[in-house]
Hints:
single chain, alpha/beta, Spore Coat Polysaccharide Biosynthesis Protein SpsA, Chain A, CATH 3.30.1330.50, 2 domains, eight-stranded mixed β-sheet, five-stranded mixed β-sheet, 19 strands, binds magnesium ion
Amino acid sequence: MTPTATSLPPARPAFAAVIVAAGQGLRAGQPLPKQFAPWRGKTVLRHAVEAMAAAGASPIVVALPEGAEMLAAALLAGMDDVLLLQGGDTRQHSVDLALEVLASNAPELVLIHDAARPDCPPQVVDRLLAALTDDPGAIPVLTIVDSVIRTSGQRDDREQLRRVQTPQAFRFAAILAAHRAWDGAPFAGDDAEVLRATGGEVALVQGDERLRKLTFAADFLEPTILPVRIGTGFDVHRLAAGEELWLCGVHIPHEKGLSGHSDADVAIHALVDAILGAVGAGDIGDHFPPSDPQWRGAPSARFLGHAVMLAAQFGYGIGNVDLTLICEAPRIGPHKQAMRERLAEILGVDPDRVSVKATTTERLGFTGRGEGIAAQAVATMIAEAK
Ligand code: CTP
Ligand code: MG
């Protein structure tokens, strides 16, 4: 099929990027300046440069602290279209120097970005570039949720205030001219302030919390995500005449069925508890209370689907599951394969990750007397790669 014009994402205009990475990162207290510190498996600098490259920036000019070019070249190995230079004694000076490098082969548009912001959602880049159609500058901003006061105690109206992030987007000629003309204080708040000083309009677009700037030591402490978590589940339902028998989402012809909340699929209930238990998300009763009429007679497959979705929100996917059904009758053997396949379908995994076993209790106890069926389950959950 030939893709139609509407099925293609809108093309972004070409743009270059400046990434300022020449600071000392004093507040972060890392052994090296913070842009060279590891964060989620890579250095902060590599994250920032990769994010700009993924958004389509070309070339990408990176301003570095004195003497850090070899280190940066090693950290950015394999990335084309990246130009390294020594930055200046202030952020603003670092931006100046990088813009001058680009000036010899001037791009139409440029994004100026802090290396200390490792994550850059592409939607923000789209919003910024779109805004440059009308204005020479555009910056991402966020509203403030807390009350704000001056240190004198006087309250400011937070509705009038915004938190400013980077990347900031500019028509290159306008921001270059503004930087060359800047004769204000040695510290401009940001590049937008430099542009405004020449009368250039700056559009405010919606920012994103993921653009947060790593600043303090605590920003580098990551919660320990266990690579694998294990949960167990156990459930019992009573066998009664006049009920249907559902096990592992499969309807089993039998003279009795299980009674209880929902379709009383004891195997799925044990499995739901195992998955919820693995991610520490409570148990089946917390999520599907028997008192809630909406779950009466509900197919238990829905509970299982919901548990998988919850686990995904906690950052985990199914590794494997193992179930044991405990009953004298019916015989489970003939249905095992169908049960595996049905569970795999609900879980969204291959059947080889699902095991269904059965045992009797030698006619002992309630399962031995045929009064009920018990099920126990184990699930391993694997942390999803970030
Ligand atoms: N930056 C720069 N050149 C400078 C100072 C800062 O390129 N002379 C860069 C930093 O590397 C950072 C960005 O500007 O990517 C934002 O600055 P900030 O978060 O303040 O970083 P640092 O100045 O390095 O940190 P600190 O203020 O804690 O020392
Ligand atoms: Mg600083």
